[in-house]
């Protein structure tokens, strides 16, 4: 297999591995608060929102050290170990206890920081200036198939149910744990890139020197990665992109946890309210996959750069927020186990709710594919630190959003996303214009990004 073919193979395996893992984890996130609400009349006393807040809070802090860890052990092994911790978190729901639930939340926060830093490193190592847009799209589209499969199972398994029994819960989470482990094992199929040797290099001499210098080199790489993360954090481009990244963190919280909870709390949806959570996840996945395919795989045909895609993303999200504001009761995010009988500005419509799910996914893919692309383009030599900063900002904002989701009515959550989304779009435009100017100065074709 050619070098280019091997790189494409690695990107596909990376995407498929994440697809399996996040089929389990994102499905878990969509139903966690609903399942926990049914558990809180037992000895279990926990909150899905609080758990996610812990996960993203720890994730954000762990991103300070994740580039060093990836530099020491390598991206492949980092992703394998992280995948094991993802599986353990999901397995906690099979027989949940409060202490295990929150302990697993801390551990998966650390694992997630390492996983996503390693993913960004792997994506960049297997891409170049001409393929980063295509590869970002392939990875994102494959990853978002996870929203289809897991939520389809939940929709079919929970159809017609208004209460989630112990047997229902165990069956779902045993299946999700196995699926997560499958994705973890697939990381072993990623092929390492061959090191290039100068003519006349002596293999045996290099091996001896490599062994004697290994520990020292790993420590030096770890320290260098940490220093680089701090340095990159304060560059103009990274500070501007951090506003856009912050918006993706808020949106991630909303569509992966809050919106599904809102749908499941609307009593006017009748016996379908719980199964609609799964259907909503499917429509989010369809939007994500469509966006990843169109704006990633077809990026080479665009001569306008990334800005039009981001503009489309914010417009799609604003339409979704407007419709959700009219369709969903204001107290839906914090409704009790009995649900809510309130009505917003229209009778709650399942069709409008599913349309909004699709729009949320489509808009999210617009932002994330372009952020992955521009980070890989601007920081091709420092991919691990750059992606660690990206996940740091995204996760800390997701943690804050999960925390206030315990208390804020729907209208205030939507207003926060509108304001941050508008600012994030402006800052992204600024960085993209700078990237276009740099390409023009080098005499490169703007469509190559």
UniProtKB/TrEMBL annotation:
Keywords: Glycoprotein, Membrane, Transmembrane, Transmembrane helix
Pfam family, one: UNC-93
A GO CC term attached to the entry: membrane
Main location: membrane
TM region positions: 7-26, 46-65, 100-118, 138-158, 170-190, 238-256, 276-297, 309-328, 386-404, 410-431
Stored CDD domains: MFS_MFSD11 (cd17407)
Annotated InterPro entries: Ion_channel_UNC-93, MFS_trans_sf, UNC-93-like_regulator
Membrane topology: Multi-pass membrane protein
Compartments, as annotated in UniProt: Membrane
Keyword Zinc-finger attributed: no
Family: Belongs to the unc-93 family.
PANTHER family named in the record: ET TRANSLATION PRODUCT-RELATED, UNC93-LIKE PROTEIN MFSD11
Identification of the protein by name: UNC93-like protein MFSD11
Native organism: Melanocharis versteri
């Amino acid at each position: 297999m050619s070098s280019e073919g091997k790189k494409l193979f690695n990107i596909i395996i990376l995407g498929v591995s994440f697809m399996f893992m996040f089929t389990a984890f994102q499905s878990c996130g969509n139903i966690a608060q609903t399942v926990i609400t049914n558990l809180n009349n037992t000895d279990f006393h926990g909150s899905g929102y609080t758990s996610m807040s812990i996960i993203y809070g720890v994730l954000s802090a762990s991103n300070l050290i994740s580039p060093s860890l990836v530099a020491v052990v390598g991206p492949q092994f980092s992703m394998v170990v992280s995948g094991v911790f993802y599986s353990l978190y999901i397995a906690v729901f099979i027989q949940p206890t409060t202490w295990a639930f929150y302990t697993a939340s801390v551990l998966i926060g650390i694992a997630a920081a390492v996983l996503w830093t390693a993913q960004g490193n792997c994506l960049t190592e297997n891409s170049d200036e001409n393929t980063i847009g295509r590869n970002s799209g392939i990875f994102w589209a494959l990853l978002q198939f996870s929203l289809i499969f897991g939520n389809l199972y939940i929709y079919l398994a929970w159809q017609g149910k208004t209460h989630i029994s112990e047997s229902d819960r165990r069956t779902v989470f045993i299946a999700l744990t196995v699926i997560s482990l499958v994705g973890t094992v697939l990381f072993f199929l990623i092929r390492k890139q061959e090191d290039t040797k100068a003519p006349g290099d002596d293999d045996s001499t290099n091996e001896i020197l490599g062994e004697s210098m290994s520990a020292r080199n790993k420590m030096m790489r770890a320290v260098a990665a940490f220093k680089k993360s701090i340095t990159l954090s304060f560059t103009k481009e990274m500070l501007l992109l951090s506003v856009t990244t912050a918006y993706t963190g808020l949106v991630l919280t909303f569509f992966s946890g809050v919106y599904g909870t809102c749908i499941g709390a609307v009593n006017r949806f009748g016996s379908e309210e719980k199964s609609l959570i799964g259907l909503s996840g499917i429509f989010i996945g369809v939007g994500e996959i469509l966006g990843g395919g169109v704006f990633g795989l077809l990026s080479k045909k665009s001569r306008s750069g990334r800005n039009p895609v981001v503009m489309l993303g914010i417009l799609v999200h604003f339409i979704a927020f407007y419709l959700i504001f009219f369709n969903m009761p204001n107290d839906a995010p914090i409704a009790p186990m009995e649900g809510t009988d309130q009505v917003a500005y229209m009778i709650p419509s399942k069709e409008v709710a599913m349309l909004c799910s699709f729009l949320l996914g489509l808009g999210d893919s617009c932002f994330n594919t372009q952020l992955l692309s521009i980070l890989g383009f601007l920081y091709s030599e420092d991919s691990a630190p750059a992606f660690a900063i990206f996940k740091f900002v995204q996760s800390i904002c997701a943690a804050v959003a999960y925390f206030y989701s315990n208390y804020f009515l729907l209208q205030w959550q939507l207003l926060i996303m509108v304001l941050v989304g508008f600012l994030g779009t402006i800052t992204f435009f600024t960085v993209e214009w700078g990237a276009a100017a740099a390409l023009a100065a080098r005499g490169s074709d703007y469509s190559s990004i």
